[in-house]
Amino acid sequence: MTDSDTPLAGRVAYVTGAARGQGRSHCVRLARAGADIVAIDACGPVAEHNGYAHARPEHLAETTSLVEGEGRTILATEVDVRDLEGQQRVVAEAIEQFGRLDVVVANAGVLNWGRLWEISAQQWQEIIDTNLTGVWNTVKATVPAIIDAGNGGSIITISSAAGIKAVPGCGHYCASKFGIVGLTNSLAIELGEYGIRVNSVHPYGTDTPMGNDVSMYQMFADHQRFIHSFSPGALPTDSLAAPDLVSDIVVWLAGDGSSLVTAAQIPAEKGYLKV
């Protein structure tokens, strides 16, 4: 392989929610670009009200196998992003093993449905704790190591199209994803002096267990006006987008080709936000 084939050679990337879906895709694509991988996932129940099955240990094992198949080393650990001390332990182990940390992909997140005044306090808290506080935990655990490495770096938060254009039926999810934008932009300013860039990515309609959650259909059946807030976008849409297409953007943000890009919200939604 040439340097152009492996633009992230010698770098180490930390990915949350890595067992399957977008997280797995990001791990594999970053590894293909030359990075060694630090991967975490809860691999168990996260939110009681989710309409789709949770990740399991065998999913993370498959991610491990796929990364190793790309010829890279991976440190994979079952840790929930809500566990700050657990993430800090993983980062310490990663530094001991790899000696550096360059890229963070704060990907872990959950989604469930309900009108804001009808969801329970537990349902609200599970979404905020995982999607927003979980990202803050990831930032707190990883940023000191990236600064200490002294190589600059790239932090990529995975928000959502619903983090820019709020939609009905999942206001708690929207609140968490809008919160990620504020966190991202503030962090980009704070880390600029260290040459560390921070950007958010905003997917929509992705072919993952979350994206295939059929419980949303009941929400639309009960409240048919809500469907008008979910346009297919400007480009032709035959199906949900493959996670690998989002990973194209993640790999670009991780590398030097996006060196001028920070505090940006990168859409990955076929123009949905403009329709």
From TrEMBL:
Record-linked Pfam families: adh_short
Cited InterPro entries: NAD(P)-bd_dom_sf (IPR036291), Sc_DH/Rdtase_CS (IPR020904), SDR_fam (IPR002347), SDR_subfam_1 (IPR023985)
Keyword terms: NAD, Oxidoreductase
Signal peptide (UniProt feature, chain positions): none
Gene Ontology terms for molecular function: oxidoreductase activity
Family that this chain belongs to: Belongs to the short-chain dehydrogenases/reductases (SDR) family.
Stated name of the protein: Putative short chain dehydrogenase/reductase
